[in-house]
């Protein structure tokens, strides 16, 4: 999977883009991050907002970035993802391109991934991804044409057991007087430093996978931008056991 890279905004030509021609989870240039003071969490052990509200955290206690919702405002940023829409699509298993229910058959839900077959023989089993699933129609074509990480390097995969068990976001380090922003990281919810991450995307572990089709017959090694396989402590067997509780 590809964590969306930081890319400049597309030039604003003054001609509005119809949102229907842009994948649902894509961020637009008018959707700015809302200024929020990040402070040490009460009692230590993580970060908080100075004016924190109940809806700022998910059910795992992880803090989420605040971002404006103005779909269609300005220009689409095809290399960036809107945190609210991405999270909605992942939790509801909706298509990342059109928001409709993702395609499902007897082999599972349809996922579109950056080709990682050259990375390891069992790929994509246990792979972590921040891409929501997709549906049929023209959505696979729309995403592969407009996502820089998938163009000419994609695979469609059927997934029977996606587990929403992690986040991607900005890691903060302890500092005085305030926590210090560090770098973008992917963390599973049981990671010891997960409460030091300001989440911006929900991450799924993919289990019981079947490769359906691919852009190329011979995969090439990836650039190392994907989160990769889940750590062994939360591998596929453990994920299934947790899901059955």
Question: What is the element layout, followed by pairings?
Answer:
Blueprint: E1 26-28, E2 38-40, E3 47-49, E4 76-81, H1 83-92, E5 104-105, E6 108-114, E7 127-129, H2 139-146, E8 154-173, E9 180-188, E10 197-214, E11 228-229, H3 236-243
Antiparallel strand pairs: 1-4, 2-3, 5-6, 6-8, 7-10, 7-11, 8-9, 8-10
Main attributes of the structure:
single chain; globular; 7-stranded antiparallel sheet; mainly beta; 31% strand; disordered N terminus; 245 residues; 11% helix
Largest sheet: 7 strands, antiparallel
Distance between the termini: 28 Å
Structural class: mainly beta
The radius of gyration is 18 Å
How many beta strands in the DSSP annotation?
11
Q: Specify the number of helices.
A: 3
What count of structural domains? 1
How much of the residues is beta strand, in percent?
25-35%
Low-confidence stretches: 1-15, 230-245
Outline = globular
Instruction: Look at the structure and give the mean pLDDT.
Output: 83
Share of residues in helices: 10-25%
Order of helices and strands: EEEEHEEEHEEEEH
């Amino acid at each position: 999977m590809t964590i969306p890279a930081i890319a400049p905004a597309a030039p604003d030509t003054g001609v509005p883009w119809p949102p229907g021609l842009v994948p649902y989870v894509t961020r637009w240039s008018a959707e700015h991050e809302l200024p929020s003071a990040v402070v040490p969490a009460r009692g230590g052990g993580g970060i908080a907002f100075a004016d924190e509200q109940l809806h700022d955290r998910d059910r795992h206690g992880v803090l989420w970035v605040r971002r404006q919702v103005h779909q269609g405002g300005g220009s689409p940023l095809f290399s960036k993802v809107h945190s609210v829409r991405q999270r909605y699509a992942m939790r509801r298993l909706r298509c990342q391109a059109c928001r409709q229910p993702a395609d499902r058959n007897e082999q599972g839900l349809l996922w579109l991934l950056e080709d990682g077959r050259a990375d390891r023989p069992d790929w994509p089993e246990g792979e972590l991804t921040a891409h929501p699933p997709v549906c049929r129609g023209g959505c696979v074509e729309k995403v592969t044409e407009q996502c820089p990480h998938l163009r000419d390097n994609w695979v469609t995969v059927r997934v029977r057991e996606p587990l929403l068990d992690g986040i991607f976001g900005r890691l903060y380090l302890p500092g005085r007087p305030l926590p210090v922003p560090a770098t973008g990281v992917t963390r599973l919810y049981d990671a010891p430093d997960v409460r030091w991450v300001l989440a911006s995307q929900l991450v799924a572990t993919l289990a019981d996978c079947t490769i359906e089709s691919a852009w190329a017959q011979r995969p090439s090694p990836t650039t190392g931008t994907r989160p990769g396989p889940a750590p062994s402590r939360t591998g596929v067997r453990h994920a299934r056991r947790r899901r059955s509780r």
